[in-house]
TrEMBL record:
Pfam families: FAD_binding_3 (PF01494), Rng_hyd_C (PF21274). It comes from the Bacteria. Coiled coil: none annotated. This is FAD-dependent monooxygenase. Residues 9-341 form the FAD-binding domain. Keywords: FAD, Flavoprotein, Monooxygenase, Oxidoreductase.
């Protein structure tokens, strides 16, 4: 393992939102040492994002966090696509978490910060990174804090600092995309008569109105102007907001006492690469899009679940060559698809009467179960599958199901096996090719606990001989009981070497 004496931390995380906080925990459970640098002195009480989708909840369950997120939080089985009258049915998902959970962004951030603190992560609020410089061996961040300026040095730096990311700009990473043509104005306000206010999304010839109650007093109200993009970068005022209400709805609804005013456009951009040397991007720093369908925070959380264990593998000295490059390779695709579906939703939401027949056609399609399931998988992230190398198998690259394995010592679930961020190797047939290869591979490994090896039977996958699951829950290798012994042994040996690594010289090259 490399010497730590020249580094203040293994990983400098710039940005203390949900993405940065989860990454910090992911690094700590794998014995790496991160620090979180957040420019805001306190957590913001305002939340653009409100929901967690199925893939995020599946992942949280595999870290033992799901119940604390579910505690006191309402859930619902339906969501919307482009404000169509036919709802997306999340109960159609092939997932134990086939619903959406109401967890405001500030709450999600708080719960993940508490998790990071439980692991002893150092979190520095009110510390703004003003410059970043990297060399062949590490990264330096210049920081301005309450007591003055200072410099930190780490092996790696991750920019989780939002759409206007200083880290991305400092790394020289291009951020191409489409400019904003639609302006959304958002306010948490008191309405003169909340009971008579329209609920949900309403489409008029002049734009869209969105309105939902937040509590007994306040409503979240948003207007969507498709005719003129907002040119100024100044703060939204109550007067401007009520003007937009009158323009789009014909009534300002008696909106008053704003506790939050914000605006954004439908601009959609994606970083050309998520890595530049020792600098990585995650969350909004890597991709921005119109916040429709509740996908943004979920996409960012999946970024760091993919990245965290790979960074820790390199820091701990056992990553194969090229492992860190798989982060960009695997996470670019899901972001491109989210940007595409949010652009499609904006097109369908356009108030132009010429779009109405297209909306009606989509509503007819959404009434078909297979179409509705496809959209549910798209919005929830359940449809994400990585193109991984290795012998083709129906499960390779997919997110592993919540399997239960009955062993000689009792039953164990896959989510429980993954709680400490290790690999899980399930030997479901007692095949000597599996246990033998594992023992052969594990014997020279100095760091214990990298792979949890479980022998047993699984009624949910009766034809499956074995399964190697990565720390992020995705299947790195699988074989069926009818496969030839040589094929099973060689496939498992290659997957263990490529993903779970070795130590010392002669590391395998990931291709």
């Amino acid at each position: 393992m490399p010497d730590n004496q020249d580094f203040d931390f293994d990983v400098l995380i710039v940005g203390g939102g949900p993405v940065g906080m989860l990454l910090a925990s992911e690094l700590r459970i794998s014995r790496a040492k991160p620090v979180v640098l957040e420019r805001l002195p306190e957590r913001t009480p305002h939340s653009k994002a409100f929901g967690l989708h199925a893939r995020s909840m599946e992942s949280l369950d595999r870290r033992g966090l799901l119940e604390r997120f579910r505690d006191g939080a309402p859930s619902w089985n339906n969501g919307h696509f482009a404000g169509l009258d036919v709802w997306v049915d999340f109960s159609l998902l092939d997932s134990a978490q086939n619903y959406a959970l109401l967890s405001e962004q500030t709450r999600t951030e708080r719960l993940l910060e508490e998790r990071a603190q439980e692991f002893g992560v150092e979190i520095r609020r009110g510390h703004e990174v003003t410059a970043v410089r990297q060399d062949a061996d590490g990264v330096e961040a210049h920081v301005t804090g309450p007591e003055g300026s200072y410099t930190l040095r780490g092996r790696y730096l991750v920019g989780a600092d939002g759409g206007r990311s200083l880290v991305r700009k400092a790394a020289g990473i291009a951020f191409p995309g489409t400019g904003g043509k639609v302006t959304a104005r958002l306010a948490d306000v008191v309405l003169a008569d909340g009971e008579k206010a329209p609920m949900g999304m309403e489409r008029t010839e002049r734009g869209l109105l969105f309105c939902v109650p937040l509590d007994d007093t306040y409503h979240r109200v948003a207007t969507f102007d498709f005719h003129q993009a907002r040119e100024t970068e100044g703060e939204l005022t109550l007067e401007e907001f009520t003007d937009s209400l009158r323009e789009i709805w014909g009534d300002d609804l008696g909106a008053s006492r704003p506790r939050w005013l914000s605006w954004f456009t439908d601009s959609a951009c994606q970083a050309e690469q998520y890595r530049a040397g020792r600098i990585f991007l995650a969350g909004d720093a890597a991709h921005t899009h119109f916040p429709v369908g509740g996908q943004g925070v979920n996409l960012g959380l999946q970024d760091v679940l993919n990245l965290g264990w790979k960074l820790a593998a390199d820091i701990n000295g056992w990553a194969c060559e090229g492992l860190l490059d798989t982060y960009d390779r695997e996470r670019q695709g899901p972001a491109r698809k989210v940007l595409a579906n949010t652009r499609a939703q904006i097109a369908l939401m356009n108030p132009d009467p010429y779009v109405t027949p297209l909306r009606e056609l989509f509503e007819d399609l959404m009434r078909k179960e297979e179409v509705n399931r496809h959209v549910a998988e798209m919005l929830s992230g359940v449809g994400v599958r990585y193109d991984l190398p290795g012998p083709g198998h129906r499960l390779l690259g997919d997110f592993a199901r919540d399997l239960t394995v009955t062993t000689a010592q009792g039953a164990v679930t896959l989510p429980k096996l993954l709680r400490r961020g290790t690999f899980a190797l399930l030997d479901l047939s007692g095949r000597p090719e599996i246990s033998g290869v594992y023992q052969e591979w594990a014997e020279p490994i100095a760091w214990p606990g990298r792979v949890q090896h479980v022998v047993g039977v699984c009624e949910q996958e009766a034809e499956l001989a074995g399964l190697l699951v990565r720390p992020d829950g995705y299947v790195a290798w699988a074989a069926d009981k009818g496969a030839p012994p040589t094929e099973i042994a060689e496939g498992l040996r290659a997957a263990l070497a490529a993903w779970a690594g070795t130590e010392g010289p002669g590391r395998p090259v990931f291709k």
